[in-house]
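#structure-requests
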Amino acid sequence: MIKKTILVMIISLSCSLLSGCWDSNEPERMVYAHGIGIDYKDNRYIIQLQMIDLGGLSKLESSGGPVEEQSEVGKASGRTINEAIFNLYRSTDRRVFWGHLSFIILSESVMEQEGLKFVTDLMNRYRETRYRIWFYSTKDSIEDILLAEPIIGISIARSVLSDPENSFEQSSFIKHIALRELLLKLNEPGHEVVIPAVSVTKRWKTQKKTDDVIQLDGLTVLTKANLKGFILGEKAKGLRWMDETMHRDDLTIYKNKKPVTEAILKTQNVKIKPVISGGRVDFDIEIKLKASINELDFQVNKEFIEKEIKKMVKKEVMKTYKAALEIDADIYRFSDVLYRKNIKEWKKHQHNGKLSLDEHSIRSIKVKVLLKDASKHLLIPSV
């Protein structure tokens, strides 16, 4: 009997020492940060935080009915980014949870003020944030971007900003980049990173109104300390052929200045070989592509299509490279290539972890094309 009494007392005392859930946070008592935009004006950082209602999103995705507002945007400023965030906390009704933060948009002015350095440091240190946060740049109004909603009532949690991989599989224009990869590239030779540039477009409309929708414009090159510059539109197209993760993208082929066919290309393999000669470091590039024909307006033979694809891919690769040289950017990461393949020569030629490049640093570009849909029938217009 005495033993049983002692056992009960021990168990009772042990239970009293258990912490239980006294410090837990109930989901319904929090609001969720989904995206954040950061600007800089008049010596102050301006943050705009996009909050989402997870209950409303689950209702939308389960087809339980429409949701009038998928998100709301709050705005505050401060002398530092963290101070601006705490100033915003004072107007929130609930605790802000950062574990679902999906993307960060940086304005041109904040990137010019070493904004990337401060943002990555803050997000890397804070315990709730994850490494899968996508980074974007813009010249447009951050508020307009954060208030833009996906077309046809798609959940905002599946927008092009928060879920870029989905649309990248269909059209691989500019590769998205998350916090983890961004940190790695900034600390590797070259010490530069490429992030997608976005803007607001009015290409989509309903019966009632024209929608503001987000689109990819090109790319931005950044270092830890400063903004190198933007490469937009046609000038940015060469980067896709140098990316082995590229799923597919289109290339219009011309004859006598008229479009004759539309090819869908996928980069299968990219080899970059450093060539050391006469005190210089140059590079030979070999690109292997797989092609299929999506549209054929005029009859052309297989040899013509392959020849034009090779010519146009080379042209786009050089066009992007030259645009990067204008902003002193190593767009194809040649510095990192030499570092990994010949560190002895890299030490001789590097300055602050980067090679000095010019228009002649690309010695040759060789493009190999495998035209899948190449039968005689498929290279004749349907009508």
